[in-house]
Every structure is written in C-alpha cells, then in structure tokens.
Amino acid sequence: MNIKKILFILTVLMMLFYMLSGCGRKETSKPEPSVFITPEPFVKYYHDPKAVEFEYDEENLTYELVWSDEFDYEGKPDESKWDYDVGGHGWGNNELQYYTAGDNAIVKDGKLIIEARKEEHEGAKYTSTRLVSRNKGDWLYGKIEVSAKLPSGRGTWPAIWMLPTDWEYGGWPNSGEIDIMEHVGYDMNNIVMSIHTQSYNHMKGTQKSGSKRIENVDTEFHVYAIEWLPDKIKWFIDGEKIFEYQPTKFKASPTFKEWPFDKKFHLLINIAVGGNWGGARGVDENIWPQTMEIDYVRVYQAKEINELISGQN
Ligand SMILES: [Ca+2]
Question: What is the model's pLDDT at position 312?
C-alpha cells in the first residue's frame, strides 16, 4: 500500500516535472528568425580581419610623388586640387569660426596662407577657411608631407588631418580619422598626432595619440608627415619618427573597428577657433588675425604597396 502510494506520488511528480520543463523549453526555445536588416557595410566588413598578413620590405619601398601643391603661383588655391568645407555650426566641437568658401585663404610668395580673423559673419564671431582635397586628392596608403608654420596664441587650433572620402564603414568615428598634426595655442609647441576609429576615439577617451614638444612652431616651418601602410601608420616631424599606430598591438585580429584605414582618405587643412579642445582655456581676444602658412603638400606612393593591394580594393 505504502509503496503503491509512493509510486503514485512519484509518477505524478515526474509528470508535473515533465510538463513544467516542457513548458519551460517552449518558452525559452529559439524565436523564429526575425527580419533584422543589417547595413550592408557591416555585413560585408564586420568579420573581415584587417591589417594582417601584409608582407613587404618596410625599409626599402620605392616611393614616387603622385600629388602635390608647391603653392608656386599667386591668388586663390588651385581649384583642381582644393575645395572648401563651408559653415559655422561648430563642426562637432563647438568651434567658434565660420569657415568661408576660400575668403580666408590666399597663395603668395610660394606659400598657402590661411588667415583666421576676428570678424562677425553669419552669427559667428570669427572667420577662417578649411581646405579639403576631397574628390580632388584622395589616396589609399602613401607618404603625406606638409611643411607648415602654425598660428600662435590661446584659442587657435590648427590641424592638418585626413578623413575618409566614402565613409564606407559608417559615420564618424566608424570610418576613421587620421590627424597628421594638431596644435592648440594654449599649449604652444606641443604637436599632437592621433587616430580615431570606432574602438578608439576621443568621445570615449580611447583615441591612440602621440605628442612631441618641438621649438618655434609659429616662427619656423616644420615638416609634419605620415607614412600610411596597409597595417600601420607612422608619424614624423622633420623626418624624425615620433609615433606609430599598429592595430595588431592592441588586438590580434583587428576589424574595421580598429583599422578602417583600408579605404581612400583625403586631406584637410584648417585653423579652428576655440572649440572643445582649442578653446578649453578660453580665447585670447587680442591676438587676431592669426595665420597658418603651408610651403608645400607632397603625397608619395610606393609601387610595392600598390602591387600588394591591387585587386583587393
Ligand atoms: Ca612652396
């Protein structure tokens, strides 16, 4: 009798357990695949390993000049090489200047001169110019050299930098940014060089940067340069290597999140006024106008690298 009772209770318990666990399985079973539309670039590139398995003789590349502006003419910057970003909306950094369509740029005495002025324009208190080579000078890998003399004083923020031409991995910072040279006037003579990507950027405070204190940035020309290779970028000032970014030093198998630098980029040259970084210690009202002079921009590419990547992009 007792055994029968126990068996009966056990059977009921087992049935209950089976039913409950059955129900549980039903609830936690995989849902039907839902329609999940992933943007094309992410489908295409997310898992692609980047910046790996490139073999080349780093010390013996044959570089040839492929694009340059020596500024050996007079007047407006060469229209076949330069365009302008125009506007005064702060450019994502609460910058104070309005960028004119070239009104603050002139070529004379062998140099490009960008002048930032204290003058009201379209609601902004300052004007300046931002030259861009977009769709006129766009490159994948190479050496980029810019000889420049910088403005001085609190509130100036000159930059020589690069952005992606086609934004194939999405909006900033996903498609990357390469800062060849940045300088803020409240920290004179300290040259900063950086990359920004989805994983490493200044919004997260994770950008990869180098810096070097040099002399006379506002009275002498210095050559600010990068060598951009398929798996690393090196920065130079006056030929001396200062910084290097190699994504595999941070991640064994980088994706576009660490290395979006396998697409074409173009050059930007500007003086910003104020802004989150340049204006972090205010803007000196008594230093204007301020100029940045560019003696030349030279872009070289190596045939060995072009051969290495032919057919890949
Ligand atoms: Ca020149």
Answer: 65
Structural domain that includes position 181: 50-309
What's the rounded Cα separation, in Å, for the pair 300 and 138?
A: 12
Strand 105-108 and strand 111-121: pairing? antiparallel
Of 115, 145, 168, 182, the active-site residue reads 182
Cα–ligand 1 centroid distance for 16 (angstroms): 87
207 is a domain residue? yes
pLDDT of residue 296: 99
Q: Kindly report the CATH number assigned to the domain that includes residue 132.
A: 2.60.120.200
pTM: 0.85
Number of domains into which the chain is organized: 1
At 220, which amino acid appears?
Answer: E
Q: What is the mean pLDDT of each run of 10 residues along the chain (313 residues)?
A: 71 66 45 54 68 94 98 98 97 96 98 98 97 98 98 98 97 97 98 98 95 98 98 98 98 95 98 97 98 99 95 60
Q: Is 235 a domain residue?
A: yes
On whether residue 293 sits in a domain, the answer given is: yes
Say how far apart CA 243 and CA 195 lie, in whole Å: 11
Residue 245 Cα to ligand 1 middle (Å):
30
The pLDDT of residue 35 is 57
**Is residue 182 annotated as a catalytic residue, yes or no?**
yes
Q: How many Å apart are CA 76 and CA 108, to the nearest integer?
A: 9
Ligand 1 centre to CA of 69 (Å) is 8
Annotated active-site residue in 177, 227, 258, 293: 177
| SS3 state at 237 | strand
Cis peptide before 49 (omega within 30 of 0): no
Q: Is residue 21 part of a domain?
A: no
CA of 142 to the centre of ligand 1 (A): 21
Cα 63 to averaged position of ligand 1 atoms, centre (Å): 21
